[in-house]
Predict the structure.
Amino acid sequence: MISRSSELFARAETRIPGGVNSPVRAFRNVDDAPFFVARADGSKIWDVDGKEYIDYVGSWGPAILGHAPKVVVDAVHEAATRGLSFGIPNPLEVEMAELICDWVPSIEKHVDGLLVKAGSGALTHGRADSAGVPRAFADLTISLPFNNIDLVRKAFVENKEKIAAVIVEPVPANAGLYLPIGDFLSILRNECLVNGALLIFDEVITGFRLARGGAQEIYGVRPDLTALGKVIGGGLPVGAFGGRAEIMDQLSPDGPVYQAGTLSGNPLAMAAGLAQLRELERINGWKLLDELGAQFEQLARNAIKDAKAGVTFNSVGSMFCLFFAPGPIVDLANARQSDLKMFAQFFHACLRRGVYFAPSQFETGFISTAHSAEDLERTGSVVREVLASL
Ligand SMILES: *Cc1c(COP(=O)(O)O)cnc(C)c1O
């Protein structure tokens, strides 16, 4: 019998490149075709064939309160009755800008818009770089391993006064998940300062997830600019960046750097984001997320230990990754040692048992405030059973 998911995917493939509107959704790293989602609520999603899963993807991060939280859905409904898009300033944009500047002290001014590229999608598909990016652009970028300050220093010496900025995810979560070691981030901050380069944190994943003020709050490092997305949109499409006023004043219409967007500051996205962020604060969501993360960490580590599986478990707060490689995993080269065949088997076995982890070794798992202790227990048992069977 053909499932509704496979029927939809067959139709999608004839009209959408690869059948998906974002490459990581294609399930290619796990040798399969994706399932299609009919609906999602709290910690669960249901596919179009009626199967239920505990979801640890959470729309790749935004669903920090779980799916379709009532406060966010209500806020979107309410905003929608007042208009979907104006193309002229609306009060919610100001509220969002004020909230972000208040919660993230390194951000003095903020804008919405913009879009970045590559990341885990590119890794999964075995391409470090996208076709269509002119060589001349690629030549302007130096790519260095995380957690290696010596190579950063070397790059600054070899390119004296030529490096404009260093951009980094303070907790890399786009190639699996690994953590900064020791004072890596504060030393990086200092190297940028003495070499006249800006430090830019990509906190699209970690922003408002690891803490109210993001990873920069936890690690006590103040970047010059910060990129945000995911959680600030409450599930609606948003990207934002902000930082020192002196830099942000370079943007049009005040400055020479052109920046624009037809739907920027969209009232529905702002309403969704504001509702989500305020609810997180109201319930002290970060404390709850840390507790749930710690519970899952314990369950997963025990399962790994008992199965004597060659798996490395990295986690911080509500984010986690099981690497099918011996640890420690502190950079991309380590992550790439993972046994991808084994990961694919693990993924499918969990999926069959109703647990949906990201369909790629190079992704991060997300726990939401809607995940119950029972969800985590059940997931722990599934991980235990699957690891033991591999
Ligand atoms: C998801 C993500 C992006 C891109 O955000 P979009 O909203 O998809 O444009 C950028 N950086 C990181 C670290 C991400 O995880």
User: Anything to note?
Assistant: Residues 285-307 form the longest helix (23 residues). The radius of gyration is 21 Å. Residues 115-116, 119, 169, 174, 202, 204-205, 229, 239 surround pyridoxal-5'-phosphate (CB under 6 Å).
